[in-house]
Amino acid sequence: MALAIIIVNYKSTGLVLDCLEHLYRDPIASTFDVLIVDNASGDDGREVITSAFPRVNWIAMTYKRWFCPRQ
């Protein structure tokens, strides 16, 4: 694949599902990969998201990691 879309998830299953629904509506959906990086959510997000969108790749963090600069 030429493009990989990375989505960081932390207890935001509904938002991720909405995002993926819009991404996969596009005809070019077969030309990109989606990686979900779960920030140790500890919920059932993986099962919900991967059952609805089996093409996504799930990367589970074992600890909560900050992905943005702290101010």
Number of helices: 2
- What is the overall pLDDT average? 88
Question: Which series of helices and strands comes N to C?
Answer: EHEHE
Beta-strand proportion? 25-35%
Lateral strand order in the biggest sheet: 1-2-3
Runs in which pLDDT lies below 50 for 5 or more consecutive residues are none
Descriptive overview:
This protein is of the alpha/beta class and 71 residues long. It has 2 helices and 3 strands. The protein has helices at residues 13-25, 45-52; strands spanning 3-9, 32-38, 57-60. It has a 3-stranded parallel β-sheet with strand order 1-2-3, with no helix packed on it. The protein is globular and about 35 Å long. The N and C termini lie far apart (35 Å). The mean pLDDT is 88.
Précis, in short:
By secondary structure, the protein is α/β, with parallel strands linked by helices. The protein is built from two helices and three strands.
